Amino acid sequence: MKKQRFAAALAAVAVGVTGCAAAPMATAGARSTLTASAETVRALAECPELPGLPTARCGQITVPRDRSNPGKGTIDVGFALVPHTDTSQPGLGTIVPNPGGPGSSTIDLAGQLFAESLQPLLDRRDLLLIDTRGVGRSTPLSCAALDGPARVFAPLPQQRRLIGECGDQLGDTVSDYTSIAVADDVDDIRATLGLSRLDLLGISYGTYLMATYAQRYPDNVRTISLAGAYAINVDTTGEVNAVAFRRAVRLVCERTGRCDGDRVISDLAALMKRLRKHPEKLTVVHEGVKHRVTLDEWQMTSVAGKVYSNQPDTATELALAKAAAAARHGDLAPARALVRKSLLKSAEDYSYGPGLLSDAQSWAVTCHDYLRDFDYADPVAKRTRQYTSTQAKLDNADFRPFSAQVWVSRADYDTGACLRWPADATAQPPFPAGAAMPDVPVLVLSGDLDANTPIESGDAAAAQFPHATHKVITGAGHTPASTPEGVGEIIDFIRDAKV
């Protein structure tokens, strides 16, 4: 069945390739290679709009929106190829990275960073940047409900309503942005360029996407590098993240000598209790617009969680500790400042628009692919009862210093975000637990300060593969690929992999 689907994809590419240069590239049946041929590179268009990638060549393919239903039309998927620089020797491979999200542009948002980080490999290896469908150069997706940064300032019930409205606005395209569809797009581009096997590099959500690709196209994978990883069929939004949060707080205090970890956690618990009983209003001004925000337990939990869900920032980590300590003495000003700073950063990110960051595409993937505690076949009221009943069984002690139901609904990690999503009978993870995965070299990296995709999630991600190596990078947060140590591990792994 998989082989037949692959052949169908090749046929679709053969008629769908448009390419910026409108010139033919490699065709099905041609001898496959680890890097694109000189002829193929020349057939692609120059990319003068990418000054940070001066040698890049751009292309585009047109693929079915829904490969199981060709009648739904097509969608364009853009890519940029950075050819290896040493043309006197055969190329050794093609690295295909994804920066995560979902919903982030690989080409215009992260392409230059990938090229700079992987530069020691790019003399003999190509770098293939692909914007996933719905983002950047791949038919960017938006919906009126999530247009702009307004969602960032909304309370939890309104955020859920806006996400549900976005799903309604996507209409019959709501199920067209799955990780499976993206993986099939990646393989169509691989076939178009005449490549035999790929070196996959996934960051955060990219680790989910690359696992999906590897499961569907095991013969087309040379190596897999996963940084900030989580598994397809394991819930990574709950207790393990709270465990990682407490671990990270203690490690920061221990390493800086500027706080006591247990005291910080105790102070945070007291702050959450206070805001649970006495929420207050906060004004946040973004681009001249005043937003009235409720500073409550949910808002503060969301902000505290984000402190340890990104690249480590010692100043912000210590600011959180000081804010919790100040609140013990009745001073909420530092906590208010942290919340304002966090919301403004999120608003800035979501102001980029779908050319760089698509909120609509992100939720389309999340609400289709990820595990959930309710059934889309049920009406919203019944879904909500199912979800609430499940959350009520959580033990607050496992989520200290936060309450369980607030932690699992914190902003951008809300397990109930899709409660109002349209009924989608196709919604399910890309593959079931225990599915066969390729026995290729796999490197999984975790950061010991990461409460987003923590060490425990890396263990689960590595366990998906027959023989994966899992390493923990000291001092790294989300993700280890943003540290020199993590990049060094990835470079050594791809260069030295025995395949």
Automatic annotation (TrEMBL):
Residues 95-479 form the AB hydrolase-1 domain. Keywords: Hydrolase, Signal. Pfam families: Abhydrolase_1. It comes from the Bacteria. GO terms for molecular function: hydrolase activity. InterPro entries: AB_hydrolase_1, AB_hydrolase_fold, Serine_prot/Carboxylest_S33. The keyword Signal applies. Residues 1-22 form the signal peptide. The keyword DNA damage does not apply. Belongs to the peptidase S33 family. This is AB hydrolase-1 domain-containing protein. It comes from Actinoplanes friuliensis DSM 7358.
